[in-house]
TrEMBL record:
Pathway given in the UniProt record: Carbohydrate degradation; pentose phosphate pathway; D-ribose 5-phosphate from D-ribulose 5-phosphate (non-oxidative stage): step 1/1
NCBIfam families: rpiA
Gene Ontology molecular function, alphabetical: ribose-5-phosphate isomerase activity
The keyword Glycoprotein is annotated on this UniProt entry: no
Record organism: Penicillium ucsense
Known catalytic reactions: aldehydo-D-ribose 5-phosphate = D-ribulose 5-phosphate
A Gene Ontology cellular-component term: cytoplasm
Entries under Gene3D superfamilies matching the protein: 3.30.70.260, 3.40.50.1360
Family label: Belongs to the ribose 5-phosphate isomerase family.
Enzyme type, top EC level: isomerase
Record's protein name: Ribose-5-phosphate isomerase
Keywords: Isomerase
GO process terms (BP): D-ribose metabolic process; pentose-phosphate shunt, non-oxidative branch
Amino acid sequence: MKSRLLVLHRPSSSAALRLAPPRPLSVPQSPRLRHQLHSQSSIARPRQIPSPSVPSPRPRHLSSMNHAVEEAKRAAAKIAVANHYPENARWVGIGSGTTIVYVVEAITALGVNTANTRFIPTGYQSRQVILSAGLTPVEFDALPTGTVLDVAFDGADEVDEDLNCIKGGGACLFQEKLVAMQAKEFICVADSRKLQTRLLSNWKYIPIEVAPIAAFRVQRRLIELGSINPAIRMNTDLKQGPLKTDQAFLLIDAPFKPLLTKADVDNGQDGSGKDGVWEVSALSEKIKEITGVLEVGIFSGMTGPEAAVAGGLGGQRPVAAYFGMPDGSVSVRKAP
Ligand SMILES: O=C[C@H](O)[C@H](O)[C@H](O)COP(=O)(O)O
């Protein structure tokens, strides 16, 4: 199942800038302190649409690093759209986050006629991105019965060698999974910080969307499964309390040990949860079983084409993931 990494585009001049790790984490030591401490970490952060024209107050080296990251996302989006945006597209899923902005930018830059194309958002921010680009959104629950999306594009917080993803760092995951699973194929676009061998290598927690009334119960169960200090995500402004998703649910950010890949298990490692060591899909299924969990931010299992062969829809694993690299090139991992 292990994917190959291909470099698709390499520029002649190298930007030679290292990308900063994504969203540094500060995981609280005590579950009792979780609300307060999480509010001070970068975990609690409403998303902003990047606006390269807005002057940055940051030191120059930081702003050039950020610029390099944004350009890496843009480069990956451009190639992903060029390779996967269908001719005469009718239904296109649009994910959430900062990278998806460049996907929409790349779609509009194609210059194709979108009069008959409907774009399915995965939340409030996603809908705003679609509208700002002059495209037409249609809510997921307004799709005609039986509609299959031609393609769904989205970002990710981390992608492993099998193309399993962690998503939800920007507080969207449930609608993203709905949309990905309604599409013929899901295409992931990211920058090199997200490209890892195993999930939970650089990105340290799994976002889980939960019913508010069940949050503490779910938190306890996550600890039993081996999560180290799972924390309810707070708004940046503490006075606003826990962050609410588009469904008015809460998010629990659950750190675990790095997740085993299929190859790890094939090589004899135990991913059944012993000592808190899990294989990706095993953990995802276990978390999904907890009463009170709406959805888990692990996208694993079948791809769209695999689901079609199995007789239906339901692929949540991308068929390809595009990564903008620090040197300006774009690498792609494709599902075998
Ligand atoms: O919750 C947000 C989504 O899952 C995003 O797709 C993910 O967090 C990646 O976001 P970004 O493109 O901003 O890195």
